Amino acid sequence: MSKAYPNPASPSGSRPGALSGKQRKFLSKLTVLISGGMFIDGFILGCIGIVMPAIAADLHLSLAWQGLIGASALVGIFIGGPLGGWLADKVGRKPMFTIDLAIFLVGSVAQFFVTEAWQLLVVRILMGIAIGADYSIGWPLLAEFAPARLRGKLLAVLELAWYVGYLISYALGWALTESNAAGWHVILGLSTVPTVIVFLMRLGTPESPRWLMSKGRRDEAKALAAEHMAHDEQLDLHAQGAAGKQGFGRLFSRDYLKTTIFVSVFWVCNVTPYFAIGAFAPVVLQKLGLQEGLTGGLVLNGVAVVGTIISVMLIERVGRRKLAVPPFFISALALMSVALFAHASPTIILVCFFTFSLVNAISTTLTGVYPGEVFPTEIRGVGVGFATAFSRIGAAAGTFLLPVVIGSFGVGTAMLIAAGISLFGGIVSYALAPETRGKLLSEASAPQRQSNSLASSGELKSAR
Protein backbone atom coordinates (compact mmCIF):
# COMPACT_ATOMS: atom_id res chain seq x y z
CA MET A 1 0.00 0.00 0.00
CA SER A 2 1.92 3.03 -1.22
CA LYS A 3 0.99 6.64 -0.71
CA ALA A 4 -0.96 8.37 -3.43
CA TYR A 5 0.72 11.73 -3.52
CA PRO A 6 3.38 13.24 -5.76
CA ASN A 7 7.01 13.22 -4.80
CA PRO A 8 8.72 16.14 -6.54
CA ALA A 9 12.26 16.95 -5.59
CA SER A 10 12.87 19.16 -2.61
CA PRO A 11 13.58 22.82 -3.34
CA SER A 12 17.09 23.31 -4.65
CA GLY A 13 19.71 23.59 -1.96
CA SER A 14 17.46 22.48 0.90
CA ARG A 15 17.27 19.22 2.79
CA PRO A 16 13.97 17.36 3.26
CA GLY A 17 11.89 19.02 5.95
CA ALA A 18 13.88 22.26 5.77
CA LEU A 19 12.07 25.55 6.40
CA SER A 20 12.60 28.86 4.66
CA GLY A 21 13.38 31.92 6.77
CA LYS A 22 9.78 33.11 6.47
CA GLN A 23 8.42 29.68 7.44
CA ARG A 24 10.72 29.49 10.47
CA LYS A 25 9.56 32.93 11.59
CA PHE A 26 5.91 31.93 11.23
CA LEU A 27 6.40 28.64 13.08
CA SER A 28 8.23 30.41 15.91
CA LYS A 29 5.44 32.97 16.23
CA LEU A 30 2.75 30.27 16.17
CA THR A 31 4.56 28.35 18.90
CA VAL A 32 4.72 31.50 21.03
CA LEU A 33 1.00 32.22 20.51
CA ILE A 34 -0.07 28.73 21.50
CA SER A 35 2.44 28.62 24.34
CA GLY A 36 0.81 31.82 25.59
CA GLY A 37 -2.43 29.96 26.15
CA MET A 38 -0.59 27.22 28.04
CA PHE A 39 1.26 29.83 30.11
CA ILE A 40 -2.06 31.40 31.07
CA ASP A 41 -3.49 28.02 32.06
CA GLY A 42 -0.56 27.36 34.37
CA PHE A 43 -0.80 30.93 35.65
CA ILE A 44 -4.42 30.66 36.82
CA LEU A 45 -3.76 27.35 38.55
CA GLY A 46 -0.39 28.12 40.13
CA CYS A 47 -1.48 30.57 42.81
CA ILE A 48 -4.83 29.14 43.87
CA GLY A 49 -3.33 26.95 46.62
CA ILE A 50 -1.37 29.89 48.04
CA VAL A 51 -4.29 32.31 48.23
CA MET A 52 -6.79 29.69 49.38
CA PRO A 53 -6.28 30.45 53.11
CA ALA A 54 -7.03 34.14 52.47
CA ILE A 55 -10.05 33.30 50.31
CA ALA A 56 -11.34 30.85 52.91
CA ALA A 57 -11.03 33.44 55.68
CA ASP A 58 -12.58 36.24 53.64
CA LEU A 59 -15.48 34.24 52.19
CA HIS A 60 -15.91 31.89 55.20
CA LEU A 61 -15.35 28.72 53.17
CA SER A 62 -15.74 25.19 54.45
CA LEU A 63 -13.26 22.49 53.40
CA ALA A 64 -15.70 21.35 50.73
CA TRP A 65 -15.97 24.87 49.29
CA GLN A 66 -12.19 25.19 49.31
CA GLY A 67 -11.97 21.99 47.29
CA LEU A 68 -14.66 23.15 44.86
CA ILE A 69 -12.99 26.49 44.19
CA GLY A 70 -9.56 24.87 43.95
CA ALA A 71 -10.90 22.44 41.34
CA SER A 72 -13.26 24.87 39.55
CA ALA A 73 -10.91 25.74 36.68
CA LEU A 74 -10.25 22.04 36.17
CA VAL A 75 -14.00 21.38 35.99
CA GLY A 76 -14.24 24.10 33.35
CA ILE A 77 -11.43 22.51 31.35
CA PHE A 78 -13.37 19.23 31.51
CA ILE A 79 -16.26 20.98 29.74
CA GLY A 80 -14.24 23.22 27.43
CA GLY A 81 -11.86 20.57 26.08
CA PRO A 82 -14.44 18.42 24.24
CA LEU A 83 -16.61 21.41 23.31
CA GLY A 84 -13.70 23.43 21.91
CA GLY A 85 -12.33 20.37 20.10
CA TRP A 86 -15.68 19.65 18.47
CA LEU A 87 -16.00 23.27 17.35
CA ALA A 88 -12.39 23.34 16.09
CA ASP A 89 -13.04 20.26 13.95
CA LYS A 90 -16.39 21.63 12.80
CA VAL A 91 -15.80 25.33 12.04
CA GLY A 92 -12.00 25.49 11.97
CA ARG A 93 -8.99 26.23 14.16
CA LYS A 94 -8.68 29.89 13.19
CA PRO A 95 -11.94 31.42 14.54
CA MET A 96 -11.86 29.44 17.77
CA PHE A 97 -8.24 30.40 18.40
CA THR A 98 -9.21 33.96 19.34
CA ILE A 99 -12.78 33.44 20.58
CA ASP A 100 -11.71 31.15 23.41
CA LEU A 101 -9.12 33.64 24.68
CA ALA A 102 -11.66 36.48 24.56
CA ILE A 103 -13.91 34.43 26.87
CA PHE A 104 -10.98 33.81 29.19
CA LEU A 105 -10.23 37.54 29.30
CA VAL A 106 -13.76 38.31 30.49
CA GLY A 107 -13.42 35.79 33.32
CA SER A 108 -9.96 37.00 34.26
CA VAL A 109 -11.16 40.58 34.70
CA ALA A 110 -14.21 39.41 36.66
CA GLN A 111 -11.96 37.95 39.38
CA PHE A 112 -11.22 41.48 40.59
CA PHE A 113 -14.89 41.98 41.49
CA VAL A 114 -16.18 38.72 43.01
CA THR A 115 -17.55 39.03 46.54
CA GLU A 116 -19.12 35.62 47.19
CA ALA A 117 -17.96 32.03 46.92
CA TRP A 118 -20.46 31.06 44.20
CA GLN A 119 -19.33 33.99 42.04
CA LEU A 120 -15.70 32.94 42.22
CA LEU A 121 -16.70 29.37 41.45
CA VAL A 122 -18.66 30.40 38.33
CA VAL A 123 -15.94 32.75 37.07
CA ARG A 124 -13.18 30.17 37.37
CA ILE A 125 -15.30 27.50 35.72
CA LEU A 126 -15.82 29.92 32.80
CA MET A 127 -12.08 30.53 32.60
CA GLY A 128 -11.47 26.79 32.68
CA ILE A 129 -13.89 26.25 29.79
CA ALA A 130 -11.92 28.74 27.69
CA ILE A 131 -8.59 27.16 28.59
CA GLY A 132 -9.91 23.65 27.89
CA ALA A 133 -10.96 24.83 24.45
CA ASP A 134 -7.51 26.31 23.90
CA TYR A 135 -5.90 22.89 24.47
CA SER A 136 -8.00 21.26 21.77
CA ILE A 137 -7.54 24.16 19.33
CA GLY A 138 -3.91 25.17 19.82
CA TRP A 139 -2.27 21.75 20.00
CA PRO A 140 -3.83 20.47 16.75
CA LEU A 141 -2.99 23.78 15.04
CA LEU A 142 0.70 23.56 15.91
CA ALA A 143 0.91 19.83 15.15
CA GLU A 144 -0.63 20.46 11.72
CA PHE A 145 1.94 23.12 10.77
CA ALA A 146 5.11 21.68 12.38
CA PRO A 147 7.62 19.57 10.41
CA ALA A 148 8.09 15.99 11.62
CA ARG A 149 11.66 16.54 12.79
CA LEU A 150 10.59 19.41 15.10
CA ARG A 151 7.00 18.55 15.96
CA GLY A 152 7.70 16.78 19.24
CA LYS A 153 10.04 19.48 20.50
CA LEU A 154 7.61 22.30 19.61
CA LEU A 155 4.65 20.54 21.22
CA ALA A 156 6.79 19.86 24.29
CA VAL A 157 7.60 23.58 24.50
CA LEU A 158 3.88 24.17 25.05
CA GLU A 159 4.03 22.09 28.21
CA LEU A 160 7.14 23.98 29.29
CA ALA A 161 5.15 27.20 28.93
CA TRP A 162 2.48 25.73 31.23
CA TYR A 163 5.03 24.95 33.93
CA VAL A 164 6.65 28.37 33.59
CA GLY A 165 3.23 30.02 33.95
CA TYR A 166 2.49 27.89 36.99
CA LEU A 167 5.88 28.69 38.55
CA ILE A 168 5.65 32.45 37.91
CA SER A 169 2.12 32.57 39.30
CA TYR A 170 3.17 30.54 42.33
CA ALA A 171 6.20 32.78 42.89
CA LEU A 172 4.15 35.99 42.55
CA GLY A 173 1.48 34.64 44.85
CA TRP A 174 4.14 33.57 47.36
CA ALA A 175 5.89 36.97 47.28
CA LEU A 176 2.68 39.00 47.49
CA THR A 177 1.30 36.80 50.27
CA GLU A 178 4.49 36.91 52.34
CA SER A 179 4.75 40.70 52.01
CA ASN A 180 1.02 41.37 52.36
CA ALA A 181 1.40 43.61 49.29
CA ALA A 182 -1.82 42.52 47.59
CA GLY A 183 -5.08 40.75 48.37
CA TRP A 184 -6.27 37.55 46.78
CA HIS A 185 -8.47 39.43 44.26
CA VAL A 186 -5.41 41.13 42.81
CA ILE A 187 -3.28 37.97 42.83
CA LEU A 188 -5.94 36.02 40.92
CA GLY A 189 -6.67 38.92 38.57
CA LEU A 190 -3.04 39.25 37.47
CA SER A 191 -3.82 36.69 34.75
CA THR A 192 -5.46 39.57 32.86
CA VAL A 193 -2.07 40.98 31.86
CA PRO A 194 -0.68 38.02 29.85
CA THR A 195 -4.15 37.31 28.46
CA VAL A 196 -4.46 40.75 26.84
CA ILE A 197 -0.99 40.43 25.29
CA VAL A 198 -1.59 36.95 23.84
CA PHE A 199 -5.09 37.84 22.62
CA LEU A 200 -3.84 40.80 20.59
CA MET A 201 -0.97 38.77 19.12
CA ARG A 202 -3.32 36.00 17.97
CA LEU A 203 -5.37 38.22 15.69
CA GLY A 204 -4.73 37.28 12.06
CA THR A 205 -3.49 33.70 12.62
CA PRO A 206 -4.09 31.62 9.44
CA GLU A 207 -6.25 28.52 9.20
CA SER A 208 -4.68 25.05 9.27
CA PRO A 209 -4.03 23.72 5.73
CA ARG A 210 -4.68 20.18 6.96
CA TRP A 211 -8.10 21.20 8.28
CA LEU A 212 -8.89 22.94 4.99
CA MET A 213 -7.85 19.82 3.10
CA SER A 214 -10.09 17.67 5.29
CA LYS A 215 -13.00 19.90 4.28
CA GLY A 216 -12.22 19.62 0.57
CA ARG A 217 -10.89 23.18 0.29
CA ARG A 218 -7.81 21.99 -1.57
CA ASP A 219 -6.72 25.20 -3.30
CA GLU A 220 -6.78 27.21 -0.07
CA ALA A 221 -4.92 24.42 1.71
CA LYS A 222 -2.18 24.23 -0.93
CA ALA A 223 -1.70 28.01 -0.99
CA LEU A 224 -1.32 28.25 2.80
CA ALA A 225 0.88 25.15 2.91
CA ALA A 226 3.24 26.58 0.29
CA GLU A 227 3.58 29.73 2.38
CA HIS A 228 3.91 28.26 5.85
CA MET A 229 4.82 24.54 5.72
CA ALA A 230 8.00 22.57 4.95
CA HIS A 231 8.28 20.59 1.72
CA ASP A 232 7.65 17.15 3.27
CA GLU A 233 4.59 18.42 5.12
CA GLN A 234 3.18 19.93 1.94
CA LEU A 235 3.42 16.50 0.32
CA ASP A 236 1.93 14.89 3.40
CA LEU A 237 -1.26 16.90 2.96
CA HIS A 238 -2.15 14.53 0.12
CA ALA A 239 -1.77 11.51 2.39
CA GLN A 240 -4.94 12.47 4.25
CA GLY A 241 -7.12 11.40 1.36
CA ALA A 242 -10.85 11.64 1.91
CA ALA A 243 -11.87 12.75 5.38
CA GLY A 244 -13.08 9.97 7.62
CA LYS A 245 -16.00 9.99 9.99
CA GLN A 246 -16.04 12.92 12.41
CA GLY A 247 -17.19 13.16 16.01
CA PHE A 248 -16.54 11.47 19.34
CA GLY A 249 -17.82 8.10 18.13
CA ARG A 250 -14.74 7.52 15.99
CA LEU A 251 -12.49 7.82 19.04
CA PHE A 252 -13.98 4.52 20.22
CA SER A 253 -13.90 2.76 16.85
CA ARG A 254 -11.69 -0.23 16.21
CA ASP A 255 -9.07 2.02 14.62
CA TYR A 256 -8.60 4.44 17.51
CA LEU A 257 -9.91 2.81 20.70
CA LYS A 258 -6.46 1.81 22.01
CA THR A 259 -5.12 5.25 21.08
CA THR A 260 -7.92 6.95 23.00
CA ILE A 261 -7.43 4.71 26.03
CA PHE A 262 -3.68 5.28 26.07
CA VAL A 263 -3.75 9.07 25.70
CA SER A 264 -6.47 9.42 28.33
CA VAL A 265 -4.90 7.13 30.93
CA PHE A 266 -1.41 8.50 30.28
CA TRP A 267 -2.60 12.04 30.87
CA VAL A 268 -4.78 11.41 33.91
CA CYS A 269 -2.13 9.34 35.69
CA ASN A 270 0.47 12.05 35.14
CA VAL A 271 -1.55 15.04 36.29
CA THR A 272 -3.62 13.61 39.14
CA PRO A 273 -0.71 13.25 41.58
CA TYR A 274 0.82 16.52 40.36
CA PHE A 275 -2.29 18.61 40.86
CA ALA A 276 -3.07 17.01 44.20
CA ILE A 277 0.42 17.66 45.52
CA GLY A 278 1.24 20.82 43.55
CA ALA A 279 -1.92 22.75 44.38
CA PHE A 280 -1.54 22.09 48.09
CA ALA A 281 2.24 21.75 48.37
CA PRO A 282 2.48 24.14 51.35
CA VAL A 283 -0.18 22.18 53.24
CA VAL A 284 1.40 18.83 52.41
CA LEU A 285 4.92 19.90 53.36
CA GLN A 286 3.78 21.51 56.60
CA LYS A 287 1.85 18.36 57.53
CA LEU A 288 5.08 16.44 56.97
CA GLY A 289 6.90 18.69 59.41
CA LEU A 290 8.49 21.23 57.05
CA GLN A 291 7.47 24.63 58.37
CA GLU A 292 8.62 26.55 55.29
CA GLY A 293 5.86 24.99 53.21
CA LEU A 294 5.46 27.89 50.78
CA THR A 295 9.17 28.00 50.05
CA GLY A 296 9.30 24.24 49.59
CA GLY A 297 6.37 24.38 47.20
CA LEU A 298 8.14 27.07 45.18
CA VAL A 299 11.25 24.92 44.87
CA LEU A 300 9.18 21.88 43.89
CA ASN A 301 7.63 23.80 41.01
CA GLY A 302 11.07 25.07 39.98
CA VAL A 303 12.29 21.47 39.80
CA ALA A 304 9.29 20.64 37.59
CA VAL A 305 10.35 23.34 35.13
CA VAL A 306 13.82 21.74 34.97
CA GLY A 307 12.21 18.37 34.21
CA THR A 308 10.23 19.87 31.36
CA ILE A 309 13.34 21.48 29.89
CA ILE A 310 15.07 18.08 29.97
CA SER A 311 12.16 16.56 28.09
CA VAL A 312 12.18 19.33 25.45
CA MET A 313 15.92 18.80 24.88
CA LEU A 314 15.73 15.01 24.61
CA ILE A 315 12.43 14.26 22.91
CA GLU A 316 13.73 14.25 19.33
CA ARG A 317 16.90 12.42 20.36
CA VAL A 318 15.68 9.50 22.45
CA GLY A 319 12.03 9.32 21.33
CA ARG A 320 8.70 9.47 23.11
CA ARG A 321 8.52 6.12 24.91
CA LYS A 322 11.80 6.48 26.83
CA LEU A 323 10.59 9.78 28.26
CA ALA A 324 6.99 8.71 28.83
CA VAL A 325 7.16 5.34 30.56
CA PRO A 326 10.05 5.07 33.11
CA PRO A 327 9.12 8.26 35.05
CA PHE A 328 5.85 6.66 36.15
CA PHE A 329 7.65 3.88 38.01
CA ILE A 330 10.19 6.28 39.54
CA SER A 331 7.33 8.56 40.67
CA ALA A 332 5.53 5.64 42.29
CA LEU A 333 8.68 4.66 44.19
CA ALA A 334 9.30 8.24 45.36
CA LEU A 335 5.74 8.78 46.60
CA MET A 336 5.66 5.41 48.30
CA SER A 337 8.88 6.33 50.10
CA VAL A 338 7.26 9.54 51.35
CA ALA A 339 4.31 7.55 52.68
CA LEU A 340 6.46 4.95 54.45
CA PHE A 341 9.30 7.14 55.74
CA ALA A 342 7.56 10.52 56.19
CA HIS A 343 8.63 10.82 59.83
CA ALA A 344 12.15 9.52 59.40
CA SER A 345 13.87 12.62 58.06
CA PRO A 346 12.92 15.95 56.44
CA THR A 347 15.78 15.35 54.00
CA ILE A 348 14.19 12.12 52.77
CA ILE A 349 10.90 13.93 52.26
CA LEU A 350 12.49 16.68 50.20
CA VAL A 351 14.58 14.29 48.08
CA CYS A 352 11.53 12.17 47.31
CA PHE A 353 9.35 15.16 46.47
CA PHE A 354 12.06 16.69 44.29
CA THR A 355 12.51 13.36 42.49
CA PHE A 356 8.79 13.09 41.92
CA SER A 357 8.54 16.67 40.61
CA LEU A 358 11.45 16.15 38.21
CA VAL A 359 10.47 12.84 36.65
CA ASN A 360 6.74 13.58 36.68
CA ALA A 361 7.43 16.75 34.67
CA ILE A 362 9.53 14.80 32.16
CA SER A 363 6.66 12.41 31.49
CA THR A 364 3.90 15.02 31.74
CA THR A 365 5.58 17.01 28.96
CA LEU A 366 4.49 14.20 26.62
CA THR A 367 0.84 14.97 27.42
CA GLY A 368 1.40 18.02 25.22
CA VAL A 369 2.85 15.87 22.43
CA TYR A 370 0.98 12.59 22.03
CA PRO A 371 -2.62 13.92 21.72
CA GLY A 372 -1.75 16.24 18.83
CA GLU A 373 0.08 13.47 16.96
CA VAL A 374 -1.96 10.28 17.23
CA PHE A 375 -5.41 11.40 15.98
CA PRO A 376 -6.21 12.22 12.32
CA THR A 377 -7.13 15.76 11.25
CA GLU A 378 -10.88 15.26 11.18
CA ILE A 379 -10.97 14.14 14.84
CA ARG A 380 -7.78 15.71 16.16
CA GLY A 381 -9.71 18.43 17.98
CA VAL A 382 -12.19 16.08 19.66
CA GLY A 383 -9.39 13.61 20.40
CA VAL A 384 -7.35 16.22 22.24
CA GLY A 385 -10.54 17.57 23.83
CA PHE A 386 -11.66 14.18 25.11
CA ALA A 387 -8.22 13.39 26.54
CA THR A 388 -8.15 16.85 28.15
CA ALA A 389 -11.54 16.28 29.77
CA PHE A 390 -10.61 12.82 30.97
CA SER A 391 -7.40 14.09 32.50
CA ARG A 392 -9.25 16.81 34.37
CA ILE A 393 -11.48 14.26 36.06
CA GLY A 394 -8.39 13.01 37.85
CA ALA A 395 -6.88 16.45 38.33
CA ALA A 396 -10.10 17.90 39.76
CA ALA A 397 -10.65 14.84 41.94
CA GLY A 398 -7.10 15.03 43.26
CA THR A 399 -7.39 18.74 44.01
CA PHE A 400 -10.80 18.35 45.64
CA LEU A 401 -10.09 15.20 47.62
CA LEU A 402 -6.55 15.80 48.86
CA PRO A 403 -7.53 18.11 51.76
CA VAL A 404 -10.27 15.68 52.74
CA VAL A 405 -8.00 12.60 52.59
CA ILE A 406 -5.25 14.37 54.56
CA GLY A 407 -7.76 15.52 57.18
CA SER A 408 -9.36 12.10 57.55
CA PHE A 409 -6.56 9.59 56.94
CA GLY A 410 -3.28 11.51 57.00
CA VAL A 411 -0.62 12.42 54.46
CA GLY A 412 0.76 8.88 54.28
CA THR A 413 -2.47 7.48 52.87
CA ALA A 414 -2.72 10.33 50.35
CA MET A 415 0.82 9.60 49.12
CA LEU A 416 0.11 5.88 48.79
CA ILE A 417 -2.93 6.62 46.63
CA ALA A 418 -0.82 8.94 44.45
CA ALA A 419 1.85 6.23 44.15
CA GLY A 420 -0.75 3.70 43.03
CA ILE A 421 -2.00 6.06 40.31
CA SER A 422 1.56 6.51 39.01
CA LEU A 423 2.15 2.77 38.99
CA PHE A 424 -1.04 2.14 37.01
CA GLY A 425 -0.07 4.82 34.50
CA GLY A 426 3.31 3.17 33.99
CA ILE A 427 1.80 -0.25 33.31
CA VAL A 428 -0.72 1.07 30.78
CA SER A 429 1.85 3.27 29.05
CA TYR A 430 4.36 0.42 28.77
CA ALA A 431 1.71 -1.63 27.01
CA LEU A 432 0.20 1.01 24.72
CA ALA A 433 2.53 4.00 24.21
CA PRO A 434 3.51 4.36 20.53
CA GLU A 435 6.78 5.76 19.19
CA THR A 436 6.01 8.66 16.84
CA ARG A 437 9.46 10.27 16.61
CA GLY A 438 10.32 11.32 13.05
CA LYS A 439 6.99 10.25 11.55
CA LEU A 440 4.99 12.48 9.26
CA LEU A 441 1.68 13.44 10.83
CA SER A 442 -0.34 11.19 8.51
CA GLU A 443 1.84 8.24 9.63
CA ALA A 444 1.70 9.06 13.34
CA SER A 445 -2.08 9.40 13.21
CA ALA A 446 -2.80 6.42 10.95
CA PRO A 447 -5.20 3.75 12.28
CA GLN A 448 -3.20 1.39 14.45
CA ARG A 449 -3.75 -1.71 12.32
CA GLN A 450 -2.84 0.22 9.15
CA SER A 451 0.22 1.74 10.81
CA ASN A 452 1.42 -1.66 11.97
CA SER A 453 0.90 -3.12 8.51
CA LEU A 454 2.82 -0.34 6.80
CA ALA A 455 5.66 -0.47 9.30
CA SER A 456 6.05 -4.24 8.97
CA SER A 457 6.14 -4.09 5.16
CA GLY A 458 8.63 -1.24 5.09
CA GLU A 459 6.41 0.88 2.88
CA LEU A 460 6.49 3.96 5.06
CA LYS A 461 10.15 4.38 4.34
CA SER A 462 9.82 3.80 0.60
CA ALA A 463 6.82 6.14 0.36
CA ARG A 464 9.04 9.08 1.25
Automatic annotation (TrEMBL):
Its primary localisation, in coarse terms, equals membrane
Which SUPFAM superfamilies does the record cross-reference, listed alphabetically? MFS general substrate transporter (SSF103473)
Q: Which GO terms describe its molecular function?
A: carbohydrate:proton symporter activity
N-terminal signal peptide: none
Q: Which UniProt keywords apply?
A: Membrane, Transmembrane, Transmembrane helix
Topology relative to the membrane, per the entry? Multi-pass membrane protein
Domain of life, per UniProt, equals Bacteria
The portions of this protein that span the membrane are 30-57, 63-84, 96-114, 120-142, 154-176, 182-203, 260-285, 297-316, 323-342, 348-370, 382-406, 412-433
Does the keyword section mention DNA-binding?
Answer: no
Q: Write out the similarity annotation.
A: Belongs to the major facilitator superfamily. Sugar transporter (TC 2.A.1.1) family.
Record protein name field: Inner membrane metabolite transport protein YgcS
Gene responsible for this protein: ygcS_2
